[in-house]
């Protein structure tokens, strides 16, 4: 795999806790908007998107992107970032409670994604790809590494362990219970680590499907326009990534919530659910399903436990609990046949727990459905088969954050220095 160290900027230690983003994917769009407005130095202000605004009130995309670029220039002017000072790798550790995962932040050639060396498990939408490609063009910067999992590799693990033994150059907590620590890898260690990562033949994309697709789209646009940077070393031909060993990644559930019961009373709804599932009372103190083929329903303030009656077909996608839910409950009982597009269906990250799902239902949703997490081997089996999971099948926790690293994908942002982004 074509891997290289990178240059650019890194967040200034004194401002890291203010600039580095929370796990914004776990926020509702309106929550992200409120957070951005109340945290003017946070990098989320350079990542504003149309869905954060009430229907019909989003500014034109070009205006929104110009605002994102202006915010990046302001951050550079306030010395929120400083120049890395030459190509290097970074070791990046996230620790949440007793869980820790340690990876390597690097760049991978976009051609590896196009050639299938980076395997996918989720579909993307053309409109989101288009918006993100326009973001790359307008803002000119990338600060959100995509997450790649690789199969166990003792040589990489030993090297990463050795390089993260000393004092980190960055070590901070933004108040969300996740400790983030970063070590710079330079000198002779760069060549050694590049060789180890370059020997990885296959990596699995766990987070960042749309960003990869948009990166490829943008690179193709730049090459088609022949803007004088067509060589393989040009910044737009490289993805910012973080490699993590698969056995360190933690996958949580992605729960579902539904606006209504499709015209059914709660009693009739549960009766129809019982055609494909065995129902029983769930422990209200600990209702989440403990194994595959089990679900928990929250409706009208009560938890119900579900167990699938008949085993699913022996197919890597059809065996997924989220697919079982689509085939056996959402479509036949609730009339939801297009999970990606139906506005009656919503999603709640598993990090919110049973309490978060119940709270969402008490606010403005009628039904909550808790799922058991998908496993890493299941994800890899789907990707190896060249198939795609249903939308919102996985929630990797803790999430990598934006606002730590900053790399160019075209021209420097109206300067304000950090050494004009190096390269």
Tag the structure with descriptive keywords.
423 residues; alpha+beta; Conserved hypothetical protein from pyrococcus furiosus pfu- 392566-001, domain 2; 2 domains; nine-stranded mixed sheet; 12 helices; globular
Mean pLDDT value: 92
Distance between termini? 21 Å
Shape: globular
What does the largest sheet look like? 9 strands, mixed
Helix/strand structural class: alpha+beta
Per DSSP, the total helix count is 12
Gyration radius, to the nearest Å?
22 Å
Whole-number count of domains: 2
Helix content: 25-40%
Instruction: Name the poorly predicted regions.
Output: none
Q: Give me the count of strands.
A: 21
- Residue share in β-strands: 15-25%
Your description of this structure?
- By secondary structure, this protein is of the alpha+beta class.
- It folds into 2 domains: 3-250 and 397-421, no CATH class; 253-373 and 389-394, Conserved hypothetical protein from pyrococcus furiosus pfu- 392566-001, domain 2, CATH 3.30.1760.
- 31% of the residues lie in helices and 24% in strands.
- The chain has 12 helices and 21 strands.
- Strands 1, 4, 5, 6, 8, 9, 10, 11 and 12 form a 9-stranded mixed β-sheet that branches.
- Strand 16 and strand 17 form a beta hairpin.
- The longest helix has 17 residues, at 61-77.
- The chain is globular, with a radius of gyration of 22 Å.
- The mean pLDDT is 92.
Concise structural overview:
The protein is an alpha+beta fold. It folds into 2 domains: 3-250 and 397-421, no CATH class; 253-373 and 389-394, Conserved hypothetical protein from pyrococcus furiosus pfu- 392566-001, domain 2 (2-Layer Sandwich).
């Amino acid at each position: 795999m074509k891997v290289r160290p990178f240059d650019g900027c890194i967040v200034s230690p004194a401002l890291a806790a203010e600039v580095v983003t929370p796990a914004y994917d776990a926020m509702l769009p309106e929550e992200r908007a409120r957070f951005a407005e109340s945290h003017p130095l946070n990098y989320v202000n350079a990542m504003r998107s149309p869905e954060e605004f009430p229907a019909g009130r989003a500014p034109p995309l070009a205006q929104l992107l110009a605002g994102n670029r202006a915010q990046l220039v302001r951050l550079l002017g306030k010395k929120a970032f400083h120049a890395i000072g030459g190509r290097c790798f970074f070791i990046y550790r996230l620790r949440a409670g007793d869980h820790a995962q340690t990876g390597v932040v690097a760049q991978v050639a976009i051609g590896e994604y196009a050639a299938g060396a980076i395997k996918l498990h989720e579909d993307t939408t053309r409109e989101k790809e288009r918006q993100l490609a326009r973001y790359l063009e307008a803002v000119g910067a990338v600060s959100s590494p995509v997450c790649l999992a690789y199969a166990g590799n003792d040589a990489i693990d030993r090297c990463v362990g050795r390089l993260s033994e000393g004092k980190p150059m960055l070590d901070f907590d933004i108040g969300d219970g996740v400790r983030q620590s970063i070590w710079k890898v330079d000198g002779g260690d760069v060549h050694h680590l590049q060789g180890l990562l370059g020997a990885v033949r296959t990596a699995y994309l766990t987070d960042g499907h749309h960003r990869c697709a948009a990166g490829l789209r943008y690179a193709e646009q730049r090459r088609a326009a022949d803007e004088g940077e067509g060589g393989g070393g040009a910044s737009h031909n490289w993805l910012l990534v973080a490699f993590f060993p698969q056995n360190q990644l933690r996958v949580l559930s992605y729960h579902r919530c539904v606006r209504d019961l499709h015209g059914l009373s709660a009693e009739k709804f549960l009766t129809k659910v019982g055609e494909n599932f065995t129902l029983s009372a769930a422990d209200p103190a600990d209702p989440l399903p403990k194994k595959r083929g089990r679900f928990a329903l929250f409706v009208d303030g009560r938890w119900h436990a579900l167990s699938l009656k008949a085993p699913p077909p022996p197919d890597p996608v059809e065996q997924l609990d989220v697919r079982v839910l689509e085939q056996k409950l959402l479509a036949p009982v609730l009339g939801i046949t297009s999970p990606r597009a139906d506005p009656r269906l919503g999603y709640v990250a598993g990090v919110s727990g049973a309490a978060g799902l119940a709270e969402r239902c008490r606010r403005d949703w009628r039904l909550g459905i808790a799922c058991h997490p998908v496993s890493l081997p299941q994800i890899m089996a789907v990707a190896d088969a060249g198939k795609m999971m249903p939308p919102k099948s996985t929630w990797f926790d803790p999430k990598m954050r934006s606002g730590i690293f900053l790399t160019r994908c075209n021209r420097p942002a109206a300067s304000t220095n950090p050494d004009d982004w190096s390269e």
